[in-house]
């Protein structure tokens, strides 16, 4: 019996990873929503770092570093987790991509761009870390989930045990702007079939599929079919965004 929390169909010699709640993974059908939500941002950044030397901090499984390496001149993926490091090193082997096992707070090598996605909320001293980004790279791409769409209404934090601090939009600006000359923030939103799904939920779809016994059959098909194109990234309605993506210029 296949463990639904472990990656499917990994290449020979690549140890599959298990979901822990700390990172997202490709090749786990039930995780596909979160994987695509992260992937669309990596693809957007890849279009903007062509020909550059990039570091992908807290790279996790390594898929994002591999996306960046499609366009960048050189990519270093950094993660402290030994299982993630072993997996990424074995699975993603292009000549312009290397992985290092170390703490993100310890990385201090000059790069053309820093990429740090969905991890600042895990950091004990985020001020010190983003100040380092400004010293080592002309531009940093830093993302985080929006507290208002992650946590219950009125709560200061979701129940994610790995998160130390979750940000509202203005809190996120206040963290980043003192360290950079210019900070541009975009928001990630649902699009295409995820937008239709939002509409269906607002019309009572949750009650319908539960009453008809369709919950598992529907989501067993719907979730794996989600694509990166089912999200949009732009400047509209930032307060309602799923995630904030900051482009920070030193």
Task: Report on the architecture of this protein.
With 250 residues, the chain is of the alpha/beta class. The chain has a single domain (29-190, 233-249), classed as Vaccinia Virus protein VP39 (Rossmann fold), CATH 3.40.50.150. Helix content is 33%, strand content 18%. It has nine helices and eight strands. It has helices at residues 32-46, 63-69, 82-91, 126-136, 147-150, 169-176, 192-202, 205-212, 215-222; strands at residues 53-57, 74-78, 97-100, 113-116, 139-145, 182-190, 231-234, 243-249. The protein has an eight-stranded mixed β-sheet, sandwiched between helices. Strand 2, helix 3 and strand 3 (97-100) form a beta-alpha-beta unit. It is globular, with a radius of gyration of 18 Å. The mean pLDDT is 94.
User: Which whole number gives the mean pLDDT?
Assistant: 94
Unreliable spans are none
CATH superfamily: Vaccinia Virus protein VP39
Taken in chain order, the helices and strands follow as: HEHEHEEHEHHEHHHEE
Shape: globular
- Termini gap: 51 Å
CATH class identity: Alpha Beta
Strand content: 15-25%
- Within the CATH hierarchy, at the fold level, what is the topology? Rossmann fold
- Per CATH, the architecture is 3-Layer(aba) Sandwich
Helical fraction = 25-40%
Q: What is the total tally of β strands?
A: 8
> Which structural class best describes the helix and strand composition?
alpha/beta
Strand order of the largest sheet: 3-2-1-4-5-8-6-7
Largest sheet: 8 strands, mixed
Gyration radius from CA atoms, angstroms: 18 Å
Number of helices: 9
Q: How many domain units?
A: 1
């Amino acid at each position: 019996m296949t463990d639904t929390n472990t990656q499917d169909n990994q290449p020979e010699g690549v140890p599959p990873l298990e979901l822990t709640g700390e990172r997202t993974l490709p090749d786990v059908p039930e995780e596909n929503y979160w994987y695509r939500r992260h992937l669309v941002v990596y693809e957007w950044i890849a279009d903007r770092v062509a020909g550059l030397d990039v570091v992908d901090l807290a790279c996790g499984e390594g898929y994002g570093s591999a996306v960046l390496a499609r366009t960048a001149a050189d990519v270093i993926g950094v993660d402290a987790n030994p299982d993630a490091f072993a997996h990424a090193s074995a699975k993603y082997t292009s000549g312009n991509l290397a992985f290092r096992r170390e703490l993100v707070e310890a990385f201090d090598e000059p790069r053309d761009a820093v990429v740090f996605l969905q991890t600042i909320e895990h950091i004990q001293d985020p001020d010190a870390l983003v100040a380092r980004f400004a010293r080592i790279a002309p531009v940093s791409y830093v993302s985080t989930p929006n507290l208002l769409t992650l946590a219950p209404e009125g709560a200061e934090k979701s129940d994610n045990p790995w998160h130390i601090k979750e940000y509202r939009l203005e809190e996120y600006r206040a963290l980043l702007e003192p360290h950079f000359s210019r900070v541009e923030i975009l928001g990630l939103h649902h699009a295409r079939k995820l937008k239709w799904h939002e509409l269906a939920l607002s019309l009572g779809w949750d009650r319908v599929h539960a009453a008809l016994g369709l919950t598992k059959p529907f989501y067993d098909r719907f979730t794996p079919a989600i694509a990166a194109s089912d999200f949009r990234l732009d400047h509209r309605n930032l307060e309602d965004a799923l995630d904030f993506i900051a482009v920070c210029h030193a």
